[in-house]
Every structure is written in structure tokens, then in C-alpha cells.
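help with this.
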Amino acid sequence: MSGTHISDALRLAVRTRDQFLCAYCKTAERIVVGDFTIDHVVPEAWGGPTELDNLCLACWRCNLIKGQRIVGADSVSGEAVRFFHPAQQSWPDHFAWSDSGLIVAGLTPTGRATIDGLKLNRPALVESRKLWMDAGWHPPNFDN
């Protein structure tokens, strides 16, 4: 199924609002080869609109892993909870960097479910974070 067209203006508004970072893993778009994708937080298949409040910037890997899912299991309670909604929730309310800056820690059920569901600490990404830290590119400074 082909998705709804996202205008260049809306695409730029999403990228700017998300500070050119993946809204989930916080990888900087400038560090990787190629543009990131625009993700429907609530997928179109679930009735999610193509509007700024339902879109976020996502690296290709986070977007592919998330797919059309919006719910995951909290690793502490085992209960099903909604994934983090980047356009409506604040990243620091749900996540924090470990002391080393390599691992994303979940502060809430939403954070933990999103980390596990989107594999935000996948080995290749953690290895990349080490290199980015050496270059002074990680962890990112962001306001949300």
C-alpha cells in the first residue's frame, strides 16, 4: 500500500521540529548516509492522519522495526502499553541516557516498551554510538 503524499513543507516542518534527530533512538540525521523517513506515529492503517501531530522523523531502522505497531510490553509489569508518541510526549520524560551515553534507559512503562519494541539498544546502534561519542556527536543535545 502506498502512503499518503507528504508535502515538502510538511516534511521540513517535521524534520525541524524533531531537530533532525530520529524521534525514537535520537540518532542525528547528519551522521548517517541518506535522509531519514517520516513516520506516521499512529499508522495510516490504524486511521492515523498525515498531520504534523501524528508524524515524526525516524531513521529507517527504527521505522522498519516499528512497522504498524503502536503497543509493546512493559518489561517491568508485562502489561501492554502504547509506544512513545514523539509529537505528543517529551523524550526526557520517558527516557534517559545511561551514564556512558551508550544505552537508552526507560523511565516509564512507555519508555521501556518503546526501547524493547523498537530495539533502541540494538548492538549495532550501541557500537555506532561509541564512535559518535569519540567524534563528539553523541549524545545529542535536544529540548524534547
